[in-house]
Design a protein that fits this description.
This protein has a domain of about 55 residues. Helix content is about 70%, strand content about 0%. The chain has about 120 residues and is mainly α.
Length: about 120
């Protein structure tokens, strides 16, 4: 489909606007693409996220740990304020930080490969 960055952009933009058309327009503008993902493609992306259920991945924990303090800093009083705070903080996530996360993941995978899946005591 698209790169991780593009999928993240689609997710954030749709979350922010709630509009497929606005999401597609912003995508074309952001990435200089003539064609944006179809409404069907965007819907499938969100359906995947919705059907994941409550199975949290390390990426979910990373994101929540990154956002939690910032989201609750001003103590949202309503669900809508909480949603707005989460949307805002997701929009300002630094892609450099996310890049560092993926580099760390690559190092961890390499260590697992080096020991052929055995246990290891390695500080990264």
């Amino acid at each position: 489909m698209n790169t991780v960055e593009q999928r993240g952009f689609l997710f954030r933009k749709y979350w922010q606007t709630g509009s497929f058309k606005a999401c597609q327009t912003a995508f074309r503008k952001e990435f200089g693409e003539r064609r944006a993902p179809s409404k069907c493609s965007i819907q499938k992306l969100f359906k995947k996220l919705e059907t994941r259920g409550t199975d949290l991945t390390p990426a979910d924990f990373f994101l929540w740990c990154l956002l939690k303090g910032k989201v609750y800093k001003n103590t949202p009083g309503t669900i809508e304020q909480l949603k707005d705070a989460i949307r805002h903080e997701i929009l300002v996530v630094n892609f450099v930080s996310l890049g560092n996360v993926f580099q760390n993941l690559e190092k961890r995978i390499q260590v697992c490969l080096d020991v052929k899946g055995d246990q290891f005591q390695h500080r990264l």
